Amino acid sequence: MARTEMGRFQEILERRAVELVQLLRKRDGIAIEKSADQMDEIQHASERDLAIRNVDRESALLRDVKAALRRIHDGSFGTCIECESAISPRRLAAVPWASRCIQCQEVADRVGRERTESVSETLVNAA
Ligand SMILES: [Zn+2]
Prior knowledge:
By secondary structure, this protein is mainly alpha-helical. The protein is 77% helix and 0% strand. It is flat and about 60 Å long. It binds zinc ion (ZN).
């Protein structure tokens, strides 16, 4: 990948990382907010649940963005971490923190989904 192109991705990723850090810092406040009122408490509980889910997603994204920045520094950015083929420019334009080519990502998503499903099954059985 051309150095200028790499620099552009670095800029996008760094900006995204800053945004996510700020967002996560703000959510910290929501998650610990408490209310004495019973109805408020219920309302807050669901807001808190949502906030926690968002935090999970945003932390995962931040981790991916940081990993992509590391790959820019070590020169492996744009190369699939699984099969080492080049990730398509279109995919990188849409998902600059992509660490896998589309084929390997599909496999990873499928494996991840199966793992999540079996975890929730365990929870159901345990209940
Ligand atoms: Zn691949």
